[in-house]
Amino acid sequence: MESPGTKQQAFSMANMDTTTHSYLHTELERRRASLEAAAGPSVTDASLRQLISSVDEALARLNGGTFGICEVCHDSIEADRLLCNPLLRFCLDHLSSEEQRALERDLVLAAGIQRGLLPRTDWSVCNWQARYHYEPAAMVSGDYFDLIEADDSFLFLLGDVAGKGVAASMLMSHLHATFRTLASQNLPLSQLVGHANRLFCESTTAGQYVTLVVGRAWPDGKVEYASAGHLPLLHVSRTGVTSRQATGVPLGMFCTTDFPVCQLRLDHGDSLFLYTDGLSEVFNTKGDEYGLCRVEQLIARHASKPPDQMLSACLSELRDFSAGVKRTDDLTLLVMQHSS
């Protein structure tokens, strides 16, 4: 769990944009209407009365300019916590011992749910072998990763939700459910990503987005993919490492946008390497960033290895580079090798 003293992005009336303010106001009004409908004409249940009162108080803070300010230290309440629960009145530093224990239990449960969404570790299908490394920086992760099997192919997805903490992890779970549902419809890849983008835009607040690679692979080595603003996909072959750049903007930035699809073909023994910025944006004790150039050089050095050995070698070199520096980003690595 992140230290209670660690402050995340400030989130008060001073820096809240108009769209977020409108979203939170609408969300609170919606909650109040639901509570009143559940309570009926006369509210006799004490817990419902308390909830309605808490919503009214949050609305008053939102309208009065004090929303998102801790009532003890008058510092900003953590942004991701407010987006998950706009009724909050205290920052992490000033939770009671009971509230901190409850938060820790919730995070442990959320982390377990996330681990349960991951594909099996020995994944092999359609003449492909995939191995991955999934390592949250804190208790829960905003990285998104999935492998979805179909009759004659499979989908691979790897992305990074903007932000950190609980809010990012909730969006990650939302993406998982969205793509799992859409995948069953056997849509062309561009339509699949377009539908997911619209659903994501309609169900999130302004400023929430995800960089994402979505691809489909067939047994003969054919691959198509769309990259929504994500880091370069690396094609590892006998001739070297080829970097494939993003083909569109991040998911969630615009409700109506195109996501061009690119194609490539992998020979026997070729691999695809995908990663999140927990690899490229790690620093050493001198303040040097690992960077995209080092990532390509790293993969080139281990191009001939099977997926599990490639991952192990990458992680070993990364930890040597960043030894002594605390990691702040979630890290997800995926190697997919065509085996026939």
What does the model show?
The structure is a single chain. The chain is of the alpha+beta class and 340 residues long. The protein has nine helices and eleven strands. 39% of the residues lie in helices and 20% in strands. The protein has two domains: 18-95, Four Helix Bundle (Hemerythrin (Met), subunit A) (Up-down Bundle); 111-338, Phosphatase 2c, domain 1 (4-Layer Sandwich). It has a six-stranded antiparallel beta sheet with strand order 1-2-11-10-7-8. Strands 3-4-5-6-9 form a five-stranded antiparallel beta sheet, covered by helices on one side. The longest helix has 22 residues, at 18-39. The two termini are 43 Å apart. It is globular and about 70 Å long. Helix 1 runs antiparallel to helix 2, helix 4 packs parallel to helix 5 (165-183) and helix 5 (165-183) crosses helix 6. Mean pLDDT is 87; it is low at 1-15.
Topology (SSEs and partners):
Elements: H1 18-39, H2 46-64, H3 79-84, H4 97-117, E1 124-125, E2 128-135, E3 143-149, E4 154-161, H5 165-183, H6 189-203, E5 210-217, E6 222-228, E7 233-237, E8 240-244, E9 262-265, E10 271-275, H7 277-280, H8 291-301, H9 307-321, E11 331-338
Antiparallel strand pairs: 1-2, 2-11, 3-4, 4-5, 5-6, 6-9, 7-8, 7-10, 10-11
